[in-house]
Amino acid sequence: MTNYEASASRHCHNAVSPLHACTYFAPEPEDELAALGLERGPMVYLASRAAALGAVDAGTVTATFYNFNHQHVRRYIPAAWVVTTPEKVIAARLRGADRTLQRLLGKEALVSTEMAEAAELALHATEACRREARPLYAAHADLPVPEEPHLALWHAATLLREHRGDGHLAALAVAGLSGIEALVLHNATGKAPTSALFMRTRGWSAEQWGTARRQLCERGLLDETGDLTQAGTALRGETEVLTDRLDAAPYDHLGPTATARLTELAGGFSGILRAAGAFPAVHFGKG
């Protein structure tokens, strides 16, 4: 894989992923899932993202999500499947995504030729995604493609995000980073969700966060102030390059011209999402 291909795949991922990720910060999906009887907050998140796997236990969720405290997961899974079924959760999640995108993007964008083109390109890219050792991608790949272009694009963005995410977890394991260590190192960039948000949503205590930070300092990846060292920056770079290699197939299949076009189209829609407040600044930074 060439340097251009590595850069192009990452740029495309960064443009497409917000079309999926915006639903984690929106009220509509949580409202739809809470209407099924699920507790707002962690239970909603864990159940909605794991539902495609079926009525799995906590061990499966912890393994596939990687950076969540297992004891935290056990509080909500498999209890969620006593409240409702994975099939109902999947349907509610799609309704929530529909309502979120309608509100944030507006009708004009949803019915545009650009939306239909972006959906077609993204779905074409997913044709080359690999199921092997990618449980979250493989589970979502078995779900039907929605007919509406904006939901088809959301579905494709989900597949591309989980495909890259599954590969990224393999890269983190190669780097010798535990789940919480990966979070602390990511937070140190200042471009990730805040440590407070990570701890609350992933179920880590301040003491556990501090321990992980000290361990990264001992490895020379963070300095005493919690900033990335040169070695920490290098390790993150190596991890991203390996992730790019593991995620090359969809964009190789799409080709450089179509990949650039998808990046342009998805980036435009993601820009609208950001301008509409889809990703509140209060949730991002080292705090």
If you had to describe this structure to a student in words, what would you say it looks like?
This protein is mainly alpha-helical. It has 18 helices and no strands. It has helices spanning 3-16, 18-21, 27-34, 42-50, 58-65, 70-74, 79-83, 86-105, 107-110, 113-126, 135-141, 149-174, 179-187, 195-202, 206-218, 230-246, 249-254, 256-275. Helix 13 (179-187) crosses helix 15 (206-218). The longest helix is centred in the middle third of the chain and has 26 residues, at 149-174. The radius of gyration is 19 Å and the shape is globular. The relative contact order is 0.16.
Strand content: under 5%
Q: Note the main sheet.
A: none
- Stretches where pLDDT is under 50 for at least 5 consecutive residues are 1-5
- Mean pLDDT figure: 95
Count of discrete alpha- or pi-helical segments spanning 4 or more residues: 18
Shape: globular
Number of strands: 0
Structural class: mainly alpha
Q: Level of helix content?
A: 55-70%
Taking Cα atoms only, what radius of gyration do you get, to the nearest Å?
19 Å
Q: Ends: how far apart? A: 37 Å
Order of helices and strands, N to C? HHHHHHHHHHHHHHHHHH
